[in-house]
């Protein structure tokens, strides 16, 4: 087997003819069409997930019916299929629940005289949206991918869409052979039931299946194909092709499950073009999956695409975009004409589960997936964190979507800890760290910002009139009062491995989920949550409880700086004045140079060397004014280019002649690629000392919010206009070619030989990150309104100096 070209490109004249899926008469069969019954060499190679830097995600738009996704809604049958795109190919495709991947990837292997190519490696790729407005702003999540062979022997154009009425992903492929004897093989690597180890596969004729348990998928086309199944790395197409000839065709992988592969070998082409439609259908059985795929093929790609988009009487993505009354104005605050704003609206809505309405996930990706074993089911970032959840719900409000935030808020009760939580004893009210969308427990640490933010969201929904007084009172009693009680008084907890006592505002973990202690950003959320809860308590006729919440908030505010702001920090030896907010402090003395806990391969760090821009949340919510001296002093350390690289936070970038900045989470961060060769986080299943967290684009949005607050506080209205170029423009520059915003981008530090990222390019961390898209939308709204969107006036009024 040869991975790549073995011979120079063939040169010849090109005569192009269009061949449809059904009437191709010029093709010839593969060399050997003899079928062998069962593929050997189970279970195949160890499986992994796909590359996580997605350039596109997609699913159909569905409307709510009484706050749920239902076939009774105006959009009809609910399609529960999501797909992602990376490196020019289809990657993880989910069916059922949003975290249940059913395939790792689907791409072409192309063979010809003297070569065998893997599409993602052998081509250059371009991606574009199939449905845009006159300004080029996307109106749906349908895509066209064009992959061009680097040696000029073929071109592959793919159009992708899910069927709004069926559980099917449709792919229309136009394959152009630019030389003689070019054969395309569509290869699918199933990972049914969210693992790559337990699948079986079989097929015949046009239908080729994979299944595990009660979930099945089928890949089918109306074209003439020679199908085959096998085990990845041992009896699949890659293992069998040699110099363009295929010797074995297997109808079944037999009774032993494993990491299976399905290949459809298409007619060989010479200097011509063919078009084929493929349906990837899902269901509870082979027959059910086949029914879904057949129905979608019968409807035809053009009809499915039109309904997906919302053409004519159909209700689709175009209708959702049209419902967002604020979106056109937000686009006016952008520097790209609104392209990223429209894409962000689509991406945020697409990352909601359709069985559990309102379940907003962090990202439709599995970070560093290509080095993550797929031997056990893993949600990756396709799960619920109340913190990310809050950011997204607030972005929906900023867009003018009032339905989704309310449905999302109601969902939060599912992930609140109480007597109903399996295996839990202790004080109720806090929110689970991370769960599946159905509420299944996954991670158990207590993060107090994640308990405050549901209160903040509920208060905002009440202020916006989305929750009336009666509903606000009811939700206060049912969900928000227990959360506020926990923020005020803490308590003993026991869940899984986690048995401890919580004493707010000391949090078991802060927003980066790594350290315990007094965190400026967490404390900002706790204070804001308690002040908001006090207003709801007054509404509910509980003035004494309201006063208790305010007393606790005042106590936390009074002690904030004495616990988290150092006046003689260790960075003074590195050019600082020694006055700044710490990332986190594990006791009440921010100047004792105590050690933080080992995390992400990094040894115990001196807490007074580690700075984090999270203190800016104190200004955003209203706890401190933008002009506060401690805040202004801390910016010097956050922005210092004099700090040693390991402790440095700010990095500068340029693109198309524009300069912009980005920030790492904190100095000493190990959540990212290795500096030695750029390989992904925790490669080999363990942490490494040379891992390094990279720049997080949403921190540019947070800085933009602070700078807006500052220019407003100093009455420098003329400076507002420039903030869009500096901060919204930065986020737009960080977006990839599919307008997806990443979790992290390459900062240019260290060896980058593994992936060869350009500086400022998204890494293989998690793309698209919902939090990043949400921060961008909220920044546009803040710039448009000339008022910080996540600001809480009652907090500001209470703590005005």
List the helices and strands and how they pair.
Layout: E1 4-5, E2 18-19, E3 35-38, E4 56-59, E5 64-65, E6 68-69, E7 81-86, E8 89-95, E9 101-112, E10 115-118, H1 119-122, E11 123-129, E12 143-149, E13 154-162, E14 168-177, E15 183-190, E16 200-204, E17 207-212, E18 215-221, E19 226-231, H2 237-240, E20 249-252, E21 260-265, E22 273-283, H3 286-299, H4 301-309, H5 317-323, H6 327-332, H7 339-350, H8 386-399, H9 403-411, E23 425-426, E24 434-435, E25 441-443, H10 448-463, H11 469-489, E26 491-495, E27 498-502, H12 520-539, H13 543-558, H14 560-564, E28 565-566, E29 580-581, H15 617-621, H16 629-639, E30 650-655, E31 658-664, E32 695-696, H17 698-713, H18 720-734, H19 770-785, H20 793-799
Key traits:
801 residues, single chain, alpha+beta, nine-stranded mixed beta sheet, globular, 20 helices
Distance between the termini: 72 Å
For the report, how would you describe the main beta sheet?
9 strands, antiparallel
CA radius of gyration: 27 Å
- So what's the oligomer here? single chain
Helical stretch tally? 20
How much of the polypeptide forms β-strand, as a percent range?
15-25%
Specify the helix fraction band. Answer: 25-40%
Find the count of extended strands (DSSP E, 2+ residues): 32
């Amino acid at each position: 087997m040869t991975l790549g070209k073995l011979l120079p490109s063939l040169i010849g004249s090109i005569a192009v003819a269009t061949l449809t899926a059904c009437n191709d008469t010029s093709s010839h069969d593969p060399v050997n069409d003899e079928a062998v019954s069962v593929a050997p060499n189970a279970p195949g190679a160890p499986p992994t997930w796909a590359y996580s830097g997605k350039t596109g995600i997609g699913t159909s738009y569905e409307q709510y019916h009484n706050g749920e996704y239902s076939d009774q809604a105006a959009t009809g049958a609910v399609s529960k299929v999501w797909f992602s795109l990376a490196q020019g190919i289809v990657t993880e495709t989910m069916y059922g629940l949003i975290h249940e991947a059913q395939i790792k990837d689907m791409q072409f292997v192309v063979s010809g005289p003297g070569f065998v190519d893997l599409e993602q490696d052998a081509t250059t790729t371009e991606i574009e949206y199939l449905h845009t407005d006159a300004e080029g702003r996307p109106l749906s999540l349908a895509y066209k991918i064009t992959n061009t062979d680097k040696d000029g022997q073929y071109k592959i154009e793919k159009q992708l869409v899910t069927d709004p009425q069926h559980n099917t992903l449709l792919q229309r492929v136009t394959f152009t052979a630019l030389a003689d004897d070019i054969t395309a093989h569509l290869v699918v690597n199933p990972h049914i039931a969210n693992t790559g180890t337990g699948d079986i596969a079989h097929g015949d004729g046009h239908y080729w299946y994979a299944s595990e348990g009660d979930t099945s998928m089928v890949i089918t086309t109306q074209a003439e194909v020679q199908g085959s199944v096998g085990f990845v790395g041992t009896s699949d197409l890659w293992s069998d092709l040699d110099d363009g000839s295929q010797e074995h065709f297997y109808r079944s992988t037999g009774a032993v499950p494993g990491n299976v592969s399905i290949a459809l070998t298409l007619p060989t082409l010479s200097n011509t073009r063919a078009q084929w439609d493929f349906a990837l259908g899902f269901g509870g059985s082979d027959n059910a999956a086949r029914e879904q795929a057949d129905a979608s093929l019968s409807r035809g790609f053009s009809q499915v695409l039109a309904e997906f988009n919302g053409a004519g009487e159909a209700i689709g993505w175009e209708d959702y975009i049209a419902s967002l009354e604020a979106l056109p104005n937000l686009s006016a605050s952008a520097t790209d004409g609104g392209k990223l704003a429209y894409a962000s609206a689509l991406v945020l809505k697409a990352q909601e589960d359709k069985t559990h309405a309102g379940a907003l996930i962090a990202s439709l990706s599995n970070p560093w997936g290509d080095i993550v074993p797929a031997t056990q089911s893993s949600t990756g970032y396709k799960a619920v964190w109340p913190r990310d959840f809050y950011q997204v719900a607030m972005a929906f409000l900023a867009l003018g979507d009032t339905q989704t935030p309310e449905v999302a808020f109601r969902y939060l009760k599912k992930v609140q800890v109480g007597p109903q939580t399996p295996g839990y004893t202790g004080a109720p009210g806090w929110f689970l760290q991370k769960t599946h969308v159905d509420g299944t427990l996954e991670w158990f640490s207590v993060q107090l910002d994640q308990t405050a933010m549901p209160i903040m969201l509920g208060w905002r929904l009440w202020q916006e009139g989305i929750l009336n007084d009666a509903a606000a009172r009811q939700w206060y009693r049912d969900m928000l009062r227990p959360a506020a009680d926990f923020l005020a008084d803490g308590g003993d907890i026991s869940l899984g491995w986690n048995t401890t006592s919580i004493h707010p505002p000391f949090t078991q973990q802060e927003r980066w989920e790594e350290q315990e202690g007094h965190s400026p950003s967490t404390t900002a959320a706790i204070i804001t949550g308690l002040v908001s809860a006090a207003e709801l308590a007054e509404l509910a006729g509980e003035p004494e409880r309201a006063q208790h919440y305010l007393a606790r908030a005042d106590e936390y505010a009074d002690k904030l700086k004495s616990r988290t702001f150092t006046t003689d920090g260790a960075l003074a030896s590195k050019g600082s004045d020694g006055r700044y907010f710490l990332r986190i402090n594990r006791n009440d003395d921010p100047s004792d140079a105590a050690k933080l806990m080992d995390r992400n391969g990094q040894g115990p760090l001196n807490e007074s060397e580690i700075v984090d821009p999270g203190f800016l949340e104190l200004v955003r919510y209203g706890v401190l004014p933008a002009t506060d001296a401690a805040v202004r002093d801390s910016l010097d350390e956050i922005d210092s280019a004099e700090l040693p690289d390991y402790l440095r936070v700010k990095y500068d970038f340029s693109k198309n002649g524009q300069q912009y900045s980005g920030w790492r989470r904190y100095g000493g961060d190990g959540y990212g690629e290795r500096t030695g060769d750029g390989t992904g986080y925790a490669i080999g299943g363990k942490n490494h000392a040379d891992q390094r967290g990279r720049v997080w684009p949403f921190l540019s949005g947070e800085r933009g919010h602070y700078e807006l607050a500052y220019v407003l506080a100093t009455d420098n209205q003329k400076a507002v206009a420039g903030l869009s170029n500096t901060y919204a423009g930065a986020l737009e520059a960080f977006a990839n070619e599919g307008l997806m915003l990443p979790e992290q981008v390459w900062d240019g530090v260290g060896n980058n030989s593994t992936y060869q990222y350009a500086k400022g390019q998204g890494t293989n961390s998690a793309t698209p990150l919902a939090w990043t898209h949400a921060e961008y939308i909220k920044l546009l709204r803040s710039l448009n309104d000339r008022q910080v969107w996540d600001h809480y006036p009652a907090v500001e009024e209470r703590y005005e100096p």
